[in-house]
């Protein structure tokens, strides 16, 4: 959605209003606002700061979730098959943490380079492709979550 965040920065009166306006473009706007409002002064109506902060918050939440999931292997009475599923989940969570951490670093480097190196048409083309990938990924994750929600008993069933 080209221009939404930039128009939000010019038409809103405070950093919090900017966050609210920017979060309207997300799949979970209320959660977006809740997670980012505490960082309004650091974000300062700046698109790069907003993206960097959102990634950092995601990384923090992923690290916390990974720590929680890792404790699940020690739950009393857990069946071997459940334990293996939890271990697989731990591995996936670790991969997610690693990727988010790398994304935080890359966005920091990209944010500095994009303003100096890319012209408008290249920047627009790159952004369009990245936004498309993000949207497709969001759709895929929603469908995976929908699938998982319909299959809660499958984890404990024996073949």
From TrEMBL:
Residues 14-143 form the Pectinesterase inhibitor domain. It comes from the Eukaryota. Keywords: Signal. GO terms for molecular function: enzyme inhibitor activity. Transmembrane segments: none annotated. The keyword Signal applies. Coiled coil: none annotated. It holds the Pfam family PMEI. Gene3D superfamilies: Invertase/pectin methylesterase inhibitor family protein. The keyword Signal applies. Belongs to the PMEI family. This is Pectinesterase inhibitor domain-containing protein. It comes from Hibiscus syriacus (Rose of Sharon).
């Amino acid at each position: 959605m080209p221009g939404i965040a930039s128009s939000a920065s010019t038409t809103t009166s405070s950093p919090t209003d900017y966050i609210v306006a920017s979060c309207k473009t997300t799949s979970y706007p209320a959660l977006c606002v809740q997670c980012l409002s505490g960082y309004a002064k650091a974000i300062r109506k700046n698109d790069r700061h907003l993206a960097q902060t959102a990634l950092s918050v995601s990384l923090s939440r992923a690290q916390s979730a990974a720590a929680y999931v890792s404790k699940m292997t020690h739950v009393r009475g857990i069946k071997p098959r459940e334990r293996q599923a939890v271990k697989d989940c731990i591995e996936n969570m670790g991969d997610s943490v690693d990727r988010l951490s790398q994304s935080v670093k890359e966005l920091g480097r990209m944010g500095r380079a994009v303003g100096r190196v890319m012209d408008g048409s290249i920047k627009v083309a790159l952004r369009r492709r990245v936004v498309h990938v993000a949207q497709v990924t969001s759709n895929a994750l929603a469908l995976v979550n929908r699938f998982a929600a319909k299959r809660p008993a499958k984890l404990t069933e024996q073949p």
